[in-house]
């Protein structure tokens, strides 16, 4: 830890102030159709942030639904209803709903994680607040969503497959079997009692953490794993993705945190990942820098589209920026893994990150200079802070009650 973390005496006051400001920001960002991605500003409007984002609104729904605030709880359901109303005939939940023009956007090659997060939000809120009524209400939408995801699953490996730049890190070159996506898929399988959850977990271990796994009896599994085993650096983390003869070795800190949070990493794998994240420096100042080592422009992994809006250069945006919402879910993973002291310290640091720029709740911070970037007033920063605050201060787990 560094001296940027608040002194213990200030922890409680800072954390409580951030909780109250999180509630207020969510109230301010509510619309009749649900929660907007960011505060209403001219810049946010020009960039399309004054809309219902599939992944953002679903993640926010979790924090809003457990907030004990009836207005926010209703807003959570409104957002889930809006996304369900614009579901594609195939079952896919939209990436964005532009409510001003009643128009859904499904991204270029298919945004896969909006569907995953929507399902997770429905199941968690039903489990912790609705006692079955919410899942019954959304049953037809959920069936179509699950069917669409199952059509993206490799029938042997039982892992979801995706194209580049088609999850939350939408200008990053991850494709094939992606850790972030499959950490969520494993959680969905557990929450909805889908078949093949254990096969998903085992395949993720063999393919995305091949360094500690014995050689697989399956020929194709071993061929894929051998590419990474021979060339990748063992960071103690899952690889960010594995595809035919290509893999992601940048250290996907966020994806690994989700692997712990959703149970994909369990036992020794959980301890290995949490230890590696702790020593990697991704949370030394503010939680969390979403990758360990940025992709440089001279790297073979660099893609021209990463220059879009000049966002994804090293230490920026998805390529090494600090994202408070990701930090909140890491803190939740720490707390639910029984590491409450570490989670509490990082929660205070997270409150400090949200307080920058006069409580800007900024989208992301530069990974080296900590300069705020992106949009102010990010709803999911506020909602996930509420999730992390609950995880630190309450004993009952939210994500891992299936264990």
Structure, explained:
The chain is mainly α and 403 residues long. It is 49% helix and 6% strand. It has a 3-stranded antiparallel β-sheet. Strands 6-7-8 form a 3-stranded antiparallel β-sheet. Strands 1-2 form a two-stranded antiparallel sheet. A hairpin with a 6-residue loop joins strand 9 (364-365) and strand 10 (372-373). Helix 1 (8-28) crosses helix 14 and helix 3 (54-65) packs antiparallel against helix 4 (70-85). The radius of gyration is 19 Å and the shape is globular. The two termini are 31 Å apart.
Provide tags for this entry.
403 residues, 10 strands, mainly alpha, 6% strand, 3-stranded antiparallel beta sheet
Please describe the topology of this protein.
Blueprint: H1 8-28, E1 30-31, E2 34-35, H2 42-46, E3 52-53, H3 54-65, H4 70-85, E4 96-98, E5 103-105, H5 113-130, H6 133-137, H7 139-150, E6 177-178, H8 179-191, H9 197-208, H10 219-231, E7 241-243, E8 246-247, H11 253-261, H12 268-280, H13 324-336, H14 340-359, E9 364-365, E10 372-373, H15 379-393
Antiparallel strand pairs: 1-2, 3-4, 4-5, 6-7, 7-8, 9-10
Helix pairs in contact: 1-14, 1-15, 3-4, 3-5, 3-15, 5-8, 8-9, 8-11, 9-10, 11-12, 11-13, 13-14, 13-15, 14-15
Summarize the structure.
By secondary structure, the chain is mostly helical. The chain has 15 helices and ten strands. It has a domain of 120 residues.
């Amino acid at each position: 830890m560094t001296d940027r973390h608040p002194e213990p005496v200030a922890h409680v006051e800072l954390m409580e102030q951030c909780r109250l400001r999180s509630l207020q920001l969510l109230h301010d960002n509510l619309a009749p159709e649900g929660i907007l991605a960011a505060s209403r500003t001219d810049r946010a409007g020009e960039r399309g942030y004054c809309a219902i984002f599939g992944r953002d609104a679903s993640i926010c729904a979790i924090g809003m639904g457990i907030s004990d605030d009836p207005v926010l709880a209703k807003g959570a359901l409104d957002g889930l209803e809006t996304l369900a109303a614009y579901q594609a005939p195939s079952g896919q939940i939209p990436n964005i709903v532009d409510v001003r023009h009643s128009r859904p956007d499904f991204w270029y090659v298919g945004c896969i994680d909006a569907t995953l997060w929507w399902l997770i939000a429905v199941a968690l809120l039903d489990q912790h607040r609705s006692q079955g009524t919410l899942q019954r209400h959304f049953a037809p939408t959920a069936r179509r969503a699950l069917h669409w995801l199952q059509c993206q699953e490799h029938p042997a490996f039982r892992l979801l497959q995706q194209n580049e730049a088609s999850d939350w890190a939408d200008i990053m070159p991850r494709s094939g079997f992606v850790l972030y996506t499959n950490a969520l898929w494993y959680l969905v399988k557990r929450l909805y009692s889908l078949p093949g959850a254990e096969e998903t977990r085992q395949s993720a271990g063999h393919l995305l953490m091949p360094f500690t796994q014995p050689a697989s009896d399956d020929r194709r599994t071993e061929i894929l794993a051998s590419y990474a085993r021979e060339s990748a650096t063992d960071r103690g983390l899952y690889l960010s993705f594995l595809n035919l003869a290509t893999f992601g070795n940048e250290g996907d800190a966020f994806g690994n945190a989700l692997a712990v949070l959703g149970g994909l990493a369990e036992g020794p794998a959980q301890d290995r990942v949490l230890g590696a994240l702790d020593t990697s420096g991704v949370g030394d100042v503010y939680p969390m820098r979403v990758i360990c080592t940025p992709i440089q422009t001279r790297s073979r992994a660099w893609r021209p589209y990463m220059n879009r809006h000049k966002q994804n250069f090293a230490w920026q945006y998805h390529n090494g920026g600090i994202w408070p919402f990701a930090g909140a879910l890491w803190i939740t993973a720490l707390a639910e893994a029984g590491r409450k002291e570490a989670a509490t310290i990082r929660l205070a640091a997270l409150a400090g990150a949200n307080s920058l720029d006069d409580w800007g709740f900024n989208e992301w911070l530069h990974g080296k200079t900590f300069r705020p970037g992106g949009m102010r007033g990010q709803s999911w920063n506020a909602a996930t802070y509420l999730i992390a605050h609950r995880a630190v201060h309450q004993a009952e787990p939210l994500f891992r009650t299936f264990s």
